[in-house]
Amino acid sequence: MSAFLRDGLSRRSLLKTGAAAAGLGAIGIATGQSVRHAMAGNLTKIKLEWTEVAACHAPIGFALEKGIFQKHGLDVELFYQGASGQTLIQALATRKAEAGPGLLYDWLKPIEQGFDVKLFAGSHGGCQSILTPQDSGIRTLTDLKSKTIGTFDVMSPSRVAFSVSLKKAGLDPERDVTWKVFPFDLVAQAVLRGEADALAHMDPWAYGWEKEHKFHRVADTQTDSFQDRVCCVLGVNGDYYAANQDALKRVAAANLEVHQYTAAHPDEVAQWYFDTLRPGMSVETLTEVLGSFTYHEHWFGDKLRDEVKRGYEDLKLTGVADASTDPEEIASRITIDIFA
Fold first, then answer.
1. What is the DSSP letter of 197?
2. 324, 84, 300, 49: which is closest to 181 by C-alpha?
3. What angle do CA 303, 307, 309 make, to 5 degrees?
4. pLDDT tens digits for 187-203?
5. Of 10, 143, 183, 284, whose CB neighbour count within 10 A is largest?
């Protein structure tokens, strides 16, 4: 039995074991052998949604393939929810999934409107960027005033995130810039054709385009107001959590283990991502992308609650969250201290 189970998933044992996994290799990975069929007894079934196109979610698929969830007593089925935050919410609302990772800002408005979800773990920071051509003269967020920013959806996660950045830089994200939507994988071409002055997109595409076209990175979700912040967090249906608290602890433990492992071995997860999802770029580039995320940081308990509070404060600035919302109250109400 793993240390996670023996010690009752305490915070101390969890972090200690996660660090050991990062240094020595998780069971079934270091040896190159799957543990899918090695664990005796019944496994708890759970459906997790994930954004299969997003590089930052690659550890979730990797964990399933390498038996990490099963090691923690979980029989996981993944629901491929695509790149839209709205699909994430719909997946949980229609019970196509019970839990899973999503961008923090994608969770907050639906929860404010009454969607019954609890947030229980933060997995990483960074995964989105604003890019411009080198000869554009655009070097800072304030340089984007009166410019057109291309993105892939009218309310893409990148637009929501960088609207916060623009607001904090002194610009009105609705009046001082123009947002224009292009097909997901053609946003960079729109900028190269002069149909937009900048692009706001997610990795690995943003990272790949930055290298391929030698774009200038104006901002990303690890700099300025996003420095040391969480990007993606795990949420769960409120009723599922009420009936399956131990299972959610196991999900959080497995998530921590695989993200610790990814921080130490981005090349292995990148190879899995390349072989399985064929994202259209080299293993070397994918390794660089995964190595750039803050997988070594983790947000639980008070730290996660503070991030949720700051998230609501951010969305109030841009008018996405209601002016009457109390960030402190709602963050305390919807955040679970999963390893308390």
1. S
2. 84
3. 115
4. 999 999 999 999 999 88
5. 143
Enter the pTM of the model: 0.83
* Euclidean distance between CA atoms 217 and 270, whole angstroms: 22
In tens, the pLDDT along 8-47 reads 333 333 333 333 333 333 333 332 322 333 344 589 999 9
Residues 6+ apart with CB under 8 A from 270: 58, 283, 286, 287, 289, 290
DSSP line for 204-242: THHHHHHHHHT-EEEEETTSGGGTT---EEEEEEHHHHH
Q: Which domains does the chain have, with CATH numbers?
A: 3-125+229-334 (3.40.190.10), 128-225 (3.40.190.10)
CA nearest 338: which of 264, 266, 245? 245
- C-alpha to C-alpha distance for 156 and 85, rounded to whole angstroms: 8
Q: Which residues are registered as beta bridge partners of 180?
A: 150
**Distance (Å, rounded) from C-alpha 76 to C-alpha 290?**
23
Give per-residue pLDDT as tens, 91-131.
888 888 999 988 899 899 999 999 999 999 998 887 889 99
pLDDT score, position 54? 79
* Helix, coil or strand: residue 195: coil
Which distant-in-sequence residues (6+ apart) come within 8 Å of 143 by Cβ?
137, 218
**Cα–Cα distance for residue pair 238/79, rounded to 1 Å:** 18
d(CA 326, CA 335): 14
Angstrom CA distances, 45 to 39, 99, 248, 250, 251, stand at 14, 12, 11, 12, 11
339: left (phi over 0), alpha (psi -120 to 50) or beta: alpha
Tell me how far CA of residue 44 lies from CA of 5, 47, 101, 245, in angstroms.
Answer: 14, 10, 19, 11
